[in-house]
């Protein structure tokens, strides 16, 4: 019985909501600036993808899956620090996935090359 009380007291101390709030309040400015920077970069990437889609004459109803493809490529190249042959291989796998979902491979290749600067293997 005393062991249960000690564990509960330890848990209550550890999960003190005022302490957690104070910690998060201290972290919030940095969290907000990192989030805003990431969203700015992602928005710029989305705009580049939309420019490619406009140039290729893609219907606006298909923008969402192409934007998802562009965001996945962006995440691979920018956030996961994949480069070189590994990045090309991952991009090829993504391209095949989205092609299987009905997207045009020429448009996918254009997004890959023009937006993310990933040259496909011949």
Structural features, described:
By secondary structure, the protein is mainly alpha-helical. The protein has helices at 2-14, 17-56, 63-79, 84-100, 105-115. The protein has one domain (2-115): Methane Monooxygenase Hydroxylase, Chain G, domain 1. The chain is 80% helix and 0% strand.
Order of helices and strands: HHHHH
Please, what is the average pLDDT? 89
Q: Beta fraction of the residues?
A: under 5%
For the CA atoms, what is the radius of gyration? 22 Å
Keywords:
single chain, 122 residues, mainly alpha, Methane Monooxygenase Hydroxylase, Chain G, domain 1, 5 helices, 0% strand
SSE topology:
Layout: H1 2-14, H2 17-56, H3 63-79, H4 84-100, H5 105-115
Helix pairs in contact: 2-3, 2-5, 3-4, 3-5, 4-5
Q: Would you summarize the structure shown here?
A:
Helices cover 80% and strands 0% of the residues. The chain has 122 residues and is an all-alpha fold.
